Amino acid sequence: MIEHVKTVILWLLILLSVFLTYQIWIFQPNYRVLQSTEYIDRTQIGDEKGLDQVIRPKQIVLYNDGLSFSPIGSLEYIQKYYDEYHGVSVEQITVTTNFIDIEIDEEFKGIEFIFPSSIPFEALNEFFHFNNNKSSFIRNIDRIVFFIESSDGKEQVHARLISNNEQVVANAITNISAESFREDITVDDKNGSYYEVFPYNIVNYGSGFMGTVFLPEDDLMINSGTYLAKTISAEHFKQSLFSDPSFVKNYLQSNGEESFTDGNRMMNVLNNGNVLQYINPVFGDGIDRNDKHILFTGLDFLNGHGGFTNSYYYDSVKSVGDKDEINFRLFVDGIPVYRANFFEINNLYEITLQRGSGNRIEQYKRPLFFVDEEPINLGESTILPSGYEVIKAINNKEDFNPYLLTDISVGYMMVKRQSFVILEPRWFIYYNNSWEVVNVVNGMEDSEVITDGLE
């Protein structure tokens, strides 16, 4: 009898096991909860961009009839020249460490591209088509000059690639037609976008290599403007920056700032919601950095985590302790933004990325808003003094040290309000590793105008 009971129980257990197995096999989870959760596409924050879209010269100079001209503050003309010379083929490259300055006389016909920071040569493969491997002798480029040169009665367009830091010059012959080149550098200034300029040497690298800026002979006329500033939700970046956003916890700090973390990575919303900071620490991973330039690492990171929300261009690279740091700067209508009313907050107009010992981006800071392309109100033109007045003002700067000056440029001062920004043109200098407004007296003191009502 007991054996029969055991047999019955055993069969019941077997049947129960078969039933449960079948139920597991046919089980369909209820996806309605997941489907009702808002999902933010990682690609919808901004646009992915290639190298050729984030590298732009800070200045273009045309040489013709013994004069020099520059389309200052004109995105249309800068884009025009940059696009026309994109994809140029070069050959017969010769590399030298002897700098021979080009004689700018009435016979000289040329165009020069001056970049805000050294461009890694690998990036120039996006700009040039090299027909031999001599290019490997230069690691980075600061300036490119195209010019006509005659030999045996034949005119050819040459290219000179200059690396000030390395004190190296590469000379090459291009496939550009001399006839079309003459047309390109002929200034037809119906819109008043070109200014006659003169060279001013700032940094002496030695052996004839100079950091040169071109400043206007006369006063400039640059428009100010008011633009809508649209907030980007931190939720968008939470979806983009964390591998599993469902594990991210949100904390409100005592100072009113907001933080997000998954226990390793952290994302902070700073400065009244205007700035995002992302930290992804690396703890002793033992990964050695390869030779990949941070420009490529930074661009890959930005394209993979939301893209670009405005016209940001490669601006500078520097070392911060044992880390590399790269900056992409906001440009509006072809003019860079260098300062804001919150003077200490660079990331209202810069995207900054830091890379540690490996190739991983460990810190990322950027604005949490984007600026509309078209102004809602275009202000009256602001008169900026000539380059001569700027030089005079710089030399009159109290305790001025010329060795700390490395750049001079027209740029915008940004005044950030709740839902809009005001952009005012000013002269700036890069002095002692930061951008400063030049106080030039031209009917009024610039410093008084800037600080009035902005603090």
UniProtKB/TrEMBL annotation:
Keywords: Membrane, Transmembrane, Transmembrane helix
Presence of the UniProt keyword Membrane in the record: yes
Parts forming coiled coils: none
Domain Regulatory protein YycH: from-to ranges: 3-440
Protein name per UniProt: Regulatory protein YycH domain-containing protein
Membrane-spanning parts: 7-27
Highest taxon of the lineage: Bacteria
Organism of origin: Anaerobacillus alkalilacustris
